[in-house]
Amino acid sequence: MPFDALEFHERAVRTDSSESVEEMRELLVETLREAGADPVVDEAGNTLATRTAHGFESGGAAVGASEQPHIVLNTHIDTVPPHVAFTEREDGAVVEGRGACDAKGPLAALVDAFLTAGIEDGWGRLTLAITPDEETVQTGAAHLAGTLDADGFVVGEPTGLDVCTAARGQYEGTITITGAAAHAATPESGANAIRAVAPVLQAMETYDEELGPDEHETLGRPTLTPTVVEGGEASNQVPEECVITFDRRPVPPETPEEFRAGLEEHLSEWIPSGMGLEVALSPRETPFLTAFATESDEPLVEALATTSGGEVRPFGAATEASYFAEHAPTVVFGPGDLADEAGAVAHSEREYVRRDEVRAAARAVRDAVDALL
Fold first, then answer.
1. CB within 10 Å: which end of the chain, N or C, has fewer?
2. Which residues of 106-131 are buried (b: 16+ CB within 10 A; e: fewer)?
């Protein structure tokens, strides 16, 4: 049954996948089967299908060593809540609704490219690998990383048809300041943890100047942002503890543990005498999303830049691409935008994508795959 990317995209945006991906995954599997593919859903909830010059193969995970070049097309089927209903504007040229650009527009384009690439006339392997939980804990991508034996990854996200070769990562954590509780009538008898927040926040501003990584040629400087401050138990008590939650957007070559240890060492020099400080990264089921950068002269980058006509630039958000970039050249690409001149697009109530961009993204990926395989 022939695949229509725009019809599939409309059905996908109408399908709520903000709380559960079950219905959306069923739609994807059914669509691939109707198109002649043989998809499987693995133990982590990933949907996988593979094509070779000999036709469709079952699944795609754990491909194993092969002399044939192997390209993986990846994106996700989950969306952030709340669900926003499907609508159209500009006489149907624009689709609005949750997931329109993040990432059901890229999904429709990648499925189209997967099904229409002229791999039968070439030499190689093409895998579609769709993950279930990119917006939350990324267990699907973490399960896939290192098992696909790929020579390149195209990760579908809204890039405005630009070819994004780098992105900052994202860590979260806490800074716990420990003092000594006392009656507020005799504050000198305790050690006020909240009072220590001021010098610690000031020290956070200087961390990257003194210990952080150098400015990255593509991604620029990392950021370290305090986001939540919590402390104190009662209005008449000197607080014993205060916790600062932070968001870290790293650039290469920083690693999470290297950052944690360096920040703790740096901040400890600013803490008042007699008080304690600990930096901890938030617990996760999967590794943190680290920063990545792919060289602009990689064949995958050059092929997709040629077929799309897009600019080669960094991506503006952390993505599952960081898991795959450890193993092979990786680019982020797709229709739609994270934001436009009016403000946020992805994750907002006004999320939208232009239908002609979905078509253009599908052609660009298909033609790049054809050139490479």
1. N
2. bbbbbbbbbbbbebeebebbbbbbbb
In the chain, the domains with their CATH numbers are 5-168+289-372 (3.40.630.10), 171-281 (3.30.70.360)
pLDDT digits (tens, 9 = 90+) for 318-342: 999 999 999 999 999 999 999 999 9
Calpha distance 103→134 (Å, rounded)? 10
Strand order in the sheet with 171-178: 223-231, 241-249, 171-178, 276-281
Q: What is the pLDDT of residues 157-200, one digit of tens each?
A: 999 999 999 999 999 999 999 999 999 999 999 999 999 999 99
**Rounded Cα distance, 222 and 169, in Å:** 9
First to last CA, the chain: 25
CA separation (Å) from 90 to 94, 225, 354, 366? 6, 39, 10, 27
Per-residue pLDDT, 10: 98
Counts of helices then strands in the chain (DSSP H, E): 9, 21
Beta bridge partners of 246: 173, 226
Rounded to two decimals, the pTM is 0.90
